[in-house]
Amino acid sequence: MKNSYFWAALFILTLVNCRKTLSVNDRPMIDTEAFHNRNMGVSAAELLDDNIYRFLFVEIQFIAACKPEQATLDYLKSFLETYLNKPKGINIVLNEIPVIKQDALSRDEVLAIEKQKRTRFMNQDTIALYILFTNGVHPGNKILGMAYRNTSAVIYGKAIRKYSSMAGRLTHQELETAVLLHEIGHLLGLVNKGSTPISQHIDSTFHDHCNNRKCLMFHSVETKNLSSILLKGNIPVLDSNCIKDLIANGGKNVPDYQPFIQPFDPAY
Ligand SMILES: [Zn+2]
Ligand SMILES: [Zn+2]
Questions:
Q1: How many angstroms does the Cα of residue 62 sit away from the middle of ligand 2?
Q2: How far is the CA of 97 from the centre of ligand 1 (A)?
Q3: What's the gap in Å between 231 CA and the centre of ligand 1?
Q4: Does residue 213 sit within a domain?
Q5: Helices of type H across the chain
Q6: Is residue 255 in some structural domain?
Q7: From the CA of 65, how far away is ligand 1's center (Å)?
Q8: What are the DSSP calls for 5-61, one per residue?
């Protein structure tokens, strides 16, 4: 009798083991480095929907002088929670890195820093973003931020400081928030870079951008020109065309959503 229990137990154990092996085999092995080394917007659906990735980890690395302000982080969390389907949650973690010697940082130089410093990557049902707040500037000196791979973006802190806080214009925190959310918008596939436009709202000159001057995805939001059009207290938000694109690509459907910040009225 004892013997038959033994064989039954062994049989069940074998079954359990088989199942485990099968479920691991079910999911193809993913090359983490290759996963994060794709073009801007390619991960839009992976970030927006919950088909595979149900948890989002946002790793922010910063140089001490360019630490993002708490209100900026609050806006980021609210923005992500509004549009992303991540039922297991969204975590934002900050860590400081040493000052970067070069002043001008090209895409390749930023990428080299990321490759050396980034610690969080996709894993099972978690997807990860990497945002670098650097003390550098873009070599052209016109761009304040850049989404440069499918899960990576840089915010040029020195440029943000330079172009903010002019009388009556956006404060440092407001400009930082606008640029950061604009780059996140690119990572979410806006415009026509991974999230297919539901209506025609692509800017005819500045591709990847929205043609609505009041939208967060208008091209000047990430450039130094922004500071001359935005009035203090009025950070741009996504317009309905951009929101529809996100929803169609798996983003949260929030019909009654009220922007957490006031839409702005550019002073042209
Ligand atoms: Zn842009
Ligand atoms: Zn738009």
A1: 29
A2: 26
A3: 19
A4: yes
A5: 2-26, 32-36, 44-48, 70-83, 107-117, 157-163, 172-187, 226-229, 240-248
A6: no
A7: 24
A8: HHHHHHHHHHHHHHHHHHHHHHSPP--HHHHHSS-TTTTHHHHH--SS--EEEEEEE
CB atoms within 10 A of CB 4: 8
Identify the CATH number of the domain in which residue 197 sits. Answer: 3.40.390.10
Question: What is the number of domains present in the chain?
Answer: 1
Interval between CA 22 and ligand 1 midpoint (Å): 43
Q: How far is the CA of 11 from the centre of ligand 1 (A)?
A: 59
> How far apart are the CA of 240 and the centre of ligand 2, in A?
7
Which residue from 114, 113, 110, 109 is spatially nearest to 130, judged by alpha carbons? 114
Using the mean position of ligand 1's atoms as its centre, give its distance from the Cα of residue 144 in Å: 10
Domain around 131: 31-248
Calculate how far, in angstroms, residue 220's C-alpha sits from the geometric centre of ligand 2.
12
Q: Going residue by residue through the chain (268 aa), what tens digit of pLDDT does each one get?
A: 455 665 555 555 444 444 444 444 556 778 999 999 999 999 999 999 999 999 999 999 999 999 999 999 999 999 999 999 999 999 999 999 998 888 889 999 999 999 999 999 999 999 999 999 998 889 887 889 999 999 999 999 988 988 886 766 788 999 999 999 999 999 999 999 999 999 999 999 999 999 998 899 998 877 766 654 566 667 888 999 999 999 999 999 876 555 544 444 433 3
Identity of the residue numbered 204: S
* Ligand 2 centroid from CA 122, angstroms: 28
**Distance from Cα 10 to the centre of ligand 1, integer Å:** 60
pTM of the predicted protein model: 0.84
